User: Which sequence fits this backbone?
């Protein structure tokens, strides 16, 4: 039997796409579905997914958990856990439509949650850490349950299938968000497990990623020292944990995070002004195991913004474009032109140089 | 001009320079033949041995060489800074052998004298320099 | 002795046809194996004195010499190999402890040779180090746990002194005394040129070598030889030697014959006296004592230098390393049981300690399990033999490696394992002036630089093949390794999968 994600490391090639409206205007999910569909050949039907930001304004202060269950026993056990730790404000199945290409779907549930103040206080953890640990707990300890989205006012939708089919399956046209990212997966070896599709998410952070990082185990073994558990053995999972570690736990801003995970070469650092040189040298020294090498292009979604980043050699394609308040990022230009034929500006970002776009009114947690 | 210099700190007294020199001047293609035949070639470099110190001595290629000055046949000349012997003119009087203050002109089975020519006819470094196992003999320009 | 219980191990074979009687062999052999017999007009040899150091073979201009293992055989016995029988004869003759030098030569498993390295194919590209930057620079020392900036972007977190290495290789501790001054000079100059570090060992620092202090690790061992304030201040880092892979659990002994004028002054002991390092540090009988020494040394050097604690790889090395990491050490150096020595009791060298590969894997994992891996760097030695071993060591989790034997090989050592005889024909493990001068540091340092440049190139080629362009992405990246012919337990300890998995 084929081993699934978490039992074996599965490399995959991919397509990614994403956009954000700086002024916060909410855009229907069918746009992102259309964009990713133009890169059909970059996926092989073994995984597709989306992340939308600003999609749950009515519950914007609650944690939205999206959960896959293999059976109702897993659901009952998970709900017992959730009830113990959270106030469940709302729960429901996530609406889907039957789709001929999407089969073997698990039970897919959504919960809007608030940590129970008594439990939170007793844990002596910050609220986000409490939530993150709850997610990790469910995913590790409850067999057949998998929380695949856990942020506020955002959500991940993913499945085994081509991304355009996944978008239809989840009725993404019914959602609207200020930012969307999408992923089409080309794994070389997977039985097709829904949890293994991308984006990968923890709290508000989501990652869509195209590439196969060669630093994987160095990265994994480092973050696992700090309470993370890489259960899926995928690049996307470990990159998400790295971002969470640096942004949430070390309060570093996204510019600095880019300088750690796609660090400039020493030859470049040596030419920088003293203060910058000192900083980057310390980054590369203290976070040396968080340098990501090998090809990647990622779009990170976070509360109030997105960041796109290529590996420092730019071993994966990635283009960016602007039109008014909109910023688009995709593996290929066609995915941008498909939804915005006339752009103001289009360019190919250099390796290691992040594109960080945040909402004009602020939003998004910023480090230091 | 590049000359051969010896650093006695590193000279081990192994005498290999002498053998490489002889071989280089033997005209033989094989070292064993050069030494195990009847006619042995005398080395143009000689190791001076002491209790704690050894060093190799060969022609200094003096700017005003006494050997050339004393040569009755005009066989010794300075060519491009190298003191050179013209075997066809040497009459074997050995005046040069007597006059060289370093004892660097030698004789062997032939009548004519022999001396170091810095392996000028061969490419690269002199054989003694190449063969020294401890870089005690160097071929370099010094002021 | 009337009876020769054993035949010499090696025989000198001279090809009479090729011998030109230049007598280089006679002059070069400090063991006086070769002699010229005027009566016979030929060279003769005394096989019994030959240690197979290959000096004569290397210098013979006509390749007329070779040294071969004798084919004289005792009656075959799988339980009593010839060498073991011979050892018994030796000890029956002398009543003494057998001494040996260099690393454990016994046929224990070499785990480096049971691990294979990965390379990229199709799904991610390999990187050509000749066309793209390929970084092997690394830092050793404690890393800050948090990073904070003031409003102007200046770093305000506490940082710690680190060693910066241009390539993740250092020369391991070999004392002046156990090796010659010229060997030390070669190491010091090579380290300086390469941007790495050499290590004084426990013999102090010769006054001529203070100039290389920025690339020197000064060692403090149980005998405290040559330790004084200026010495501590001279180095870039201080290493406390708790143990050595070749002889865990015992101290050191430099015979008085090797303690000449210079060694005596450098070690600060009277000329001609034996330099005996006690087995333990007599001020360290437990982990809390180690902490006191670490902080004494830091105090003495104003907290400007990282402190390394070097231990031999023994059975509970992971727990010991964890204790050291929590005692204020900045770097832990672990020396495996195949590490070299200038002299060790044979039985200890051949039977005590564990392989560095397993020790490294356990220590790295243990420090990660405890969440303290970033508090300390891990350097391994004993024995790292080539660039492949280095890549594997770093992938298992080492920050850098120490090389000792390999460095001596670059200087001409032929691993005859006779260092304790003090008559090293290569001018390395000797203090006899006529032998010491055989190692010209001008040649020696260049050969060391060549060796490390070559290895650095090879490391980069292998990294590029894996699609990695910076050494830190290789460190602890055990997914890049697969075991071959290993048991489940061995794979489990190494933290790697089997080839084909």
Assistant:
């Amino acid at each position: 039997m084929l081993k699934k994600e978490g039992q074996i490391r599965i490399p995959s090639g991919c397509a990614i796409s994403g956009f954000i409206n700086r002024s916060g205007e909410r855009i229907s999910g069918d746009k992102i579905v259309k964009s990713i569909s133009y890169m059909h050949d970059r996926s092989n039907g073994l995984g597709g997914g989306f992340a939308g930001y600003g999609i749950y304004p009515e519950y914007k202060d609650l944690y939205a958990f999206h959960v896959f269950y293999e059976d109702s026993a897993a659901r009952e056990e998970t709900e017992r856990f959730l009830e113990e730790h959270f106030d469940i404000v709302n729960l429901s199945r996530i609406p889907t439509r039957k789709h001929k290409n999407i089969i073997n779907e698990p039970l897919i549930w959504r919960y809007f949650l608030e940590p129970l103040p008594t439990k939170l206080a007793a844990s002596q953890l910050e609220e986000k850490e409490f939530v993150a640990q709850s997610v990790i707990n469910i995913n590790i300890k409850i067999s057949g349950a998998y929380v695949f989205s856990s942020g506020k006012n955002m959500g991940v939708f993913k499945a085994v299938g081509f991304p355009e089919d996944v978008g239809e399956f989840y009725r993404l046209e019914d959602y609207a968000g200020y930012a969307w990212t999408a992923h089409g997966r080309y794994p070389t070896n997977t039985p097709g497990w829904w949890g293994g599709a991308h984006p990968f998410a923890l709290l508000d952070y989501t990652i869509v990623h195209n590439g196969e990082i060669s630093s994987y185990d160095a990265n994994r073994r480092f973050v696992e020292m700090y309470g993370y558990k890489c259960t899926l053995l995928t690049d996307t999972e470990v990159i998400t944990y790295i971002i969470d570690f640096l942004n949430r736990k070390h309060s570093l801003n996204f510019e600095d995070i880019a300088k750690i995970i796609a660090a400039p070469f020493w030859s470049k650092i040596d030419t920088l002004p003293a203060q910058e040189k000192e900083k980057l040298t310390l980054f590369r020294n203290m976070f040396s195991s968080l340098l990501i090498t090998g090809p990647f292009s990622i779009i990170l979604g976070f509360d109030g913004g997105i960041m796109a980043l290529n590996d420092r050699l730019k071993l994966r394609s990635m283009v960016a474009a602007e039109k008014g308040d909109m910023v688009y990022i995709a593996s290929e230009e066609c995915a941008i032109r498909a939804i915005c034929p006339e752009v103001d500006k289009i360019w190919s970002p250099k390796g290691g140089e992040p594109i960080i776009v945040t909402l004009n009114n602020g939003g998004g947690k910023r480090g230091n | 001009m590049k000359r051969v210099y010896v650093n006695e700190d590193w000279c081990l007294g192994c005498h290999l320079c002498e053998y490489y020199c002889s071989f280089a001047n033997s005209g033989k293609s094989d070292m064993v033949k050069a030494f195990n035949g009847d006619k042995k070639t005398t080395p143009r470099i000689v190791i001076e041995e002491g209790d704690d110190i050894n060093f190799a001595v060969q022609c200094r290629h003096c700017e005003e060489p006494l050997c050339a000055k004393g040569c009755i046949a005009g066989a010794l000349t300075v060519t491009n800074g190298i003191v050179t012997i013209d075997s066809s003119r040497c009459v074997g009087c050995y005046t040069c052998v007597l006059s060289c203050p370093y004892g660097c002109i030698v004789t062997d089975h032939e009548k004519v004298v022999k001396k170091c020519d810095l392996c000028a006819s061969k490419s690269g470094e002199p054989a003694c320099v190449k063969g020294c196992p401890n870089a005690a003999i160097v071929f370099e320009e010094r002021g | 002795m009337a009876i020769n219980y054993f035949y010499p191990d090696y025989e000198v074979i001279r090809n009479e046809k090729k011998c030109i009687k230049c007598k280089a062999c006679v002059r070069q052999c400090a063991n006086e194996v070769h002699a010229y017999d005027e009566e016979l007009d030929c060279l003769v040899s005394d096989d019994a004195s030959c240690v197979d150091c290959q000096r004569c073979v290397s210098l013979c201009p006509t390749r007329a010499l070779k040294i071969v293992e004798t084919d004289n055989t005792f009656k075959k016995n799988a339980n009593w190999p010839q060498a073991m029988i011979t050892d018994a004869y030796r000890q029956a003759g002398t009543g003494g402890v057998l001494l040996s030098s260099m690393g454990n030569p016994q046929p224990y498993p070499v785990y480096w040779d049971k691990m294979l390295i990965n390379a990229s194919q199709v799904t991610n590209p390999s990187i050509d180090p000749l066309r793209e930057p390929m970084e092997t620079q690394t830092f050793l020392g404690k890393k800050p746990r948090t990073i904070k900036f003031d409003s102007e972007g200046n770093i305000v977190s506490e940082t710690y002194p680190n060693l910066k290495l241009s390539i993740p290789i250092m020369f391991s501790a070999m004392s002046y005394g156990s090796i010659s001054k010229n060997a030390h000079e070669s190491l010091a100059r090579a380290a300086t040129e390469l941007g790495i570090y050499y290590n004084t060992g426990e013999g102090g620092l010769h006054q001529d070598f203070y100039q290389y202090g920025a690339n020197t690790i000064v060692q403090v061992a149980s005998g405290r030889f040559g330790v004084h304030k200026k010495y501590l201040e001279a180095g870039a880092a201080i290493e406390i030697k708790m143990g050595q892979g070749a002889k865990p659990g015992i101290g050191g002994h430099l015979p008085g014959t090797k303690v000449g004028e210079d060694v005596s002054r450098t070690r600060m002991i009277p000329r001609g006296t034996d330099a005996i390092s006690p087995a333990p540090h007599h001020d360290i009988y437990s982990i809390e004592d180690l902490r006191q020494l670490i902080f004494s040394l830091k105090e003495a050097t104003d907290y400007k230098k990282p402190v390394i604690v070097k231990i031999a790889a023994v059975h509970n090395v992971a727990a010991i390393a964890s204790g050291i990491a929590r005692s204020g050490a900045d770097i832990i150096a672990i020396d495996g049981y195949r590490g070299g020595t200038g002299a060790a009791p044979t039985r200890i060298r051949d039977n005590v300690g564990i392989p560095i590969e397993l020790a490294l894997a356990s220590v790295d994992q243990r420090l990660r399990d405890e969440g303290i891996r970033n508090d300390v760097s891990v350097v391994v030695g004993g024995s790292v033999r080539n660039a492949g071993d280095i890549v594997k060591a770093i992938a298992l989790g080492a920050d850098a490696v120490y090389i000792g034997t390999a460095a001596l090989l670059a200087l001409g050592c032929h691993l005859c394992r006779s260092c304790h005889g003090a008559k090293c024909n290569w001018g390395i493990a000797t203090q006899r002036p006529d032998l010491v001068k055989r190692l010209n540091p001008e040649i020696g340092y260049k050969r060391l630089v060549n060796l490390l440049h070559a290895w650095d190139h090879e490391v980069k080629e292998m990294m590029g093949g894996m699609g990695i362009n910076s050494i830190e992405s290789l460190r602890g990246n055990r997914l890049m390794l697969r075991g071959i012919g290993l048991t489940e337990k061995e794979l489990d300890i190494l933290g790697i999968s089997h080839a084909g998995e």
The CA atoms of residues 72 and 95 of chain B lie 8 Å apart.
